[in-house]
Design a protein that fits this description.
Radius of gyration: 29 Å
Strand content: 15-25%
Shape: globular
Strand order of the largest sheet: 11-12-10-13-14-9-15
CATH topology of the largest domain: Rossmann fold
CATH superfamily of the largest domain: P-loop containing nucleotide triphosphate hydrolases
Enzyme class: isomerase
Largest sheet: 7 strands, parallel
Protein name: Replication restart protein PriA
GO molecular function, one term: ATP hydrolysis activity
Keywords: ATP-binding, DNA replication, DNA-binding, Helicase, Hydrolase, Isomerase, Metal-binding, Nucleotide-binding, Primosome, Zinc
Catalytic activity: Couples ATP hydrolysis with the unwinding of duplex DNA by translocating in the 3'-5' direction; ATP + H2O = ADP + phosphate + H(+)
Distance between the termini: 56 Å
CATH architecture of the largest domain: 3-Layer(aba) Sandwich
Bound molecules: adenosine-5'-diphosphate, zinc ion
Helix content: 25-40%
């Protein structure tokens, strides 16, 4: 006898739910629960979306649910709505959003028991701290490890203890009887932890500036959906505003949850430390959790579950955290909201910032978007009065002023025959030497990693290219390799030109490695450190390198945008910008917006703690309007000019766009697919209000031997575009001839 049916979302490209039967004896599944179900010849994890007493699927086709994950509280209706919205808006199946949104470990039923088990923990008592080290026999290595692990953080999970010592359980019990430790058992999902005990001192934080105070007041007064654009110059103390607004929220509603998003994993430790310090007295340690892709799977699942059960009050994470289940979410913060890293570039191509705003609206709560250089999309919302603008116009720390920005005209330098050093102009080198003498730090920014972007032969014009991509390969000197930044292909550096045998093949252009090398001889005695994707490949190494900078073990820091964002460097008083000009003439209409915000961000690293800061920008186009706005720190002027240009040119945010991308074995196949897709659009009524452009190859047309092309569609009506895209899907699925295709809504790179 069967008791009922469930409709389950599976991680599968079709936008349908799958029916399964569940037996009467089993605990009845509820919407939002995870289940294990047979699919084809495998068992997979699915999410129950509906429970019903009947199914239209013929009985002989129906299969049974294999297991229900009853220990995990169901995902809320609001979370399911979020997943459904994201699926609909970004043109994917519900399961393609909901399941990848869960931590990987939860999607593995063999780990359910362990993850959802009650937590058993031992906590070290003062008597134990005193007695334990002496009480243990000198040779008892495993016992010592146990005691050390306990002493390190003051507490130890039973499961972790068992991994350290096979007889951990009876040992810890005997220690408990001796009064050395206490035992605690927390049922899984036992709900919010109490505020932290007495003893911990409340951390006050600095006296707020008037502007900060006004911003905090506005945010904490909000009792319904309220989007705020916190426009604060670099170093103006935006973090302090978030902290105070969160503190006010938690004081008012001790059970409330908040989500704080940062654009990069590397920024989480700095934020986490600030949050832990500030809330040490009011929140238990496990009430603040992080969520990002750098966490081990088990930890990520535990943190996700802490958010899901309400134990975690503050969730700090990168873009993926926007999909966390937060049943009592009462406030959202998106720091550096303009950052392109909030856009996921594969799978579900969502904007975490946009979803954060949607969640705030769904729940009727405030959301704070913070930036020194807001995206033009958000700026335009504020201009229209849809977002409330909060402005921090000055740096927070007394004496800290925005750095002086100077342009170094490279043409002029050359004309006057002034010395330069491997791409480092005379004035920049002199300025770095002066910093070195004063014991201050310099930062050199250029957005290109590797040694040189091109290796070429003067004699015959040969250029080292990737055999799989339509791209040059980058010379990496430390590894003595040529490496393709698009597909990872690698080869040794040839001794001579493979075409003509000339041995004088030379690197052209400069990357971070080459500048690092040049700095060592241009500024003798300086300790130079490079931070980019290559120097931080090993897990944890970025953190270690940033610590060296903070500790003052570095005189000159050279790196890519990794060093530009968010970091609060105290002793950096000079920033040098090299090779920024390329972006001025990009075909991408967002290139200048991106360049401007990058340069504002990196300039913002100088002079944060009261040392007078200076920024030197090397350029061939010192009269370019972008550099002029930069030199005046004039974001508002820049943004308004850009918006006027965008309006005149009918570009976002004045129109809405989507891209259809196709990947084929040949470019012809990709283009043919797109032209058929364009033809299919004409049959869709809503497409009358949609403009369809010609299919074009991507700039890097071939990657990994796959040819790529795209088709842009746009409309002044978001609704018309959405309706068109939805109606387009079945037609696209029916087309053949390419390896892959995808639709991206609100694309950032065109
Ligand atoms: P932003 O994120 O706006 O670039 P931060 O939040 O990193 O700036 O703050 C810059 C520095 O100013 C930090 O060292 C911070 O501790 C300090 N700060 C913030 N608010 C105040 C204040 N009201 N008084 C003194 N220092 C402050
Ligand atoms: Zn040659
Ligand atoms: Zn390649």
């Amino acid at each position: 006898m069967t008791a009922g049916f469930v409709r389950v979302a599976l991680d599968h490209p079709l936008p349908v739910l799958y029916d399964y039967r569940y037996p009467a004896s089993a605990p009845a599944p509820q919407p939002g629960m995870l289940v294990r179900v047979p699919f084809g010849r495998r068992d997979v994890v699915g999410l129950v979306c509906e429970v019903d007493s009947h199914s239209d699927v013929p009985a002989d086709k129906l299969r049974d649910v294999s297991a229900v994950c009853a220990a995990c509280p169901p995902l809320s209706g609001q979370w399911l709505e979020l997943a459904a919205f994201a699926a609909d808006y970004y043109q994917r199946g519900l399961g393609e959003v909901a399941l990848p949104g869960l931590p990987q470990a939860l999607r593995d039923p063999s780990r359910w028991n362990r993850l959802l088990a009650p937590e058993e923990r031992y906590r070290l008592l003062p008597a134990g701290r005193e007695a334990l080290p002496e009480a243990l026999p000198a040779r008892a290595q495993a016992l010592r490890r146990l005691a050390e692990a306990l002493a390190e953080t003051g507490e130890l999970d039973l499961a972790d203890a068992k991994a350290l010592h096979p007889k951990a359980a009876p040992t810890l019990e005997s220690w408990r009887e001796a009064g050395w430790v206490e035992y605690e058992r927390v049922e899984f999902g036992a709900g919010p932890v109490a505020a932290k005990c007495a003893g911990a001192e409340t951390v006050q934080g600095p006296t707020l500036s008037d502007e900060q105070a006004a911003a905090v007041d506005a945010i904490q007064a909000a009792r319904s959906f309220a989007p705020f654009l916190l426009h604060g110059v670099t170093g103006s103390g935006k973090t302090e505003v978030y902290l105070r607004a969160l503190a006010a929220l938690l004081e008012r509603e001790p059970d409330a949850q908040a989500l704080v998003l940062v654009p990069e994993i590397n920024l989480t430790p700095q934020f986490e430390a600030a949050f832990r310090t500030r809330f040490a007295a009011t929140l238990a340690d496990d009430a603040i959790v992080t969520l990002h892709s750098g966490l081990a799977e088990g930890e990520r699942a535990r943190n996700w579950l802490a958010a899901h059960t309400g134990r975690a009050r503050i969730v700090l994470g990168t873009r993926l955290a926007v999909l966390a289940s937060l049943p009592r979410l009462a406030m959202l913060v998106v720091d550096e909201e303009h950052d392109p890293a909030y856009k996921q570039q594969e799978g579900l191509r969502y904007s975490a910032r946009d979803l954060a705003v949607w969640r705030a609206k769904q729940l009727g709560v405030p959301v704070v978007l913070g930036s020194a250089t807001p995206s033009l999309e958000s700026w335009w919302q504020a201009e229209q009065g849809r977002y409330t603008r909060l402005t921090l116009s000055r740096r927070a720390i007394a004496d800290a002023v925005l750095p002086a920005i100077r342009l170094i005209d490279l043409e002029e330098e050359r004309r006057r025959g002034r010395a330069s050093f491997e791409g480092l102009s005379g004035p920049l080198v002199a300025a770095m030497k002066a910093r070195l003498e004063r014991g201050e730090q310099s930062l050199v920014f250029l957005n290109r990693r590797g040694y040189a972007p091109v290796l070429s032969c003067d004699a015959c014009g040969w250029v080292a290219g990737c055999p799989r991509c339509s791209a040059y390969v980058v010379l990496h000197k430390p590894e003595r390799a040529l490496r393709c930044h698009h597909c990872g292909w690698e080869s040794r550096i040839p001794r001579s030109c493979p075409d003509c045998g000339n041995v004088d093949i030379a690197p052209m252009g400069r990357g971070t490695q080459r500048i690092e090398e040049a700095l060592a001889s241009a500024v003798p005695g300086a300790r130079v450190l490079r931070i980019d994707a290559d120097s931080t490949r090993r897990k944890g190494s970025a953190q270690a390198l940033f610590s060296d900078v903070h500790a003052g073990d570095v005189d000159i820091l050279v790196g890519t945008q990794m060093i530009a964002k968010g970091h609060d460097f105290q002793r950096v008083s000079l920033v040098g910008v090299i090779n920024a000009d390329n972006a001025l003439f990009s075909h991408d209409f967002r290139a200048s917006e991106r360049l401007f915000s990058q340069l504002m961000q990196v300039s913002g690293r100088a002079g944060r703690a009261g040392l007078p800061g200076e920024v030197l920008v090397q350029t061939r186009y010192p009269r370019h309007a972008l550099y002029h706005a930069l030199a005046r720190h004039d974001y508002v002027g820049f943004a308004n000019t850009q918006l006027t240009e965008r309006r005149d040119a009918h570009l976002p945010p004045f129109v809405y766009q989507a891209l259809l991308r196709a990947e084929g074995r040949t470019l012809e196949a990709a283009l043919e697919f797109l032209s058929q897709a364009a033809h299919a659009l004409t049959a869709i009524p809503a497409s009358e209000r949609v403009t369809v452009y010609d299919a074009v190859p991507l700039t890097i047309v071939k990657v990994m031997n796959v040819h790529r092309a795209q088709l842009l569609v746009e409309s002044q009506s978001r609704a018309a575009l959405q309706a068109t895209l939805r109606a387009w899907q079945p037609a696209l699925r029916a087309l053949r001839g390419v390896l892959r295709w995808n639709v991206e809504v609100d694309p950032l790179d065109i």
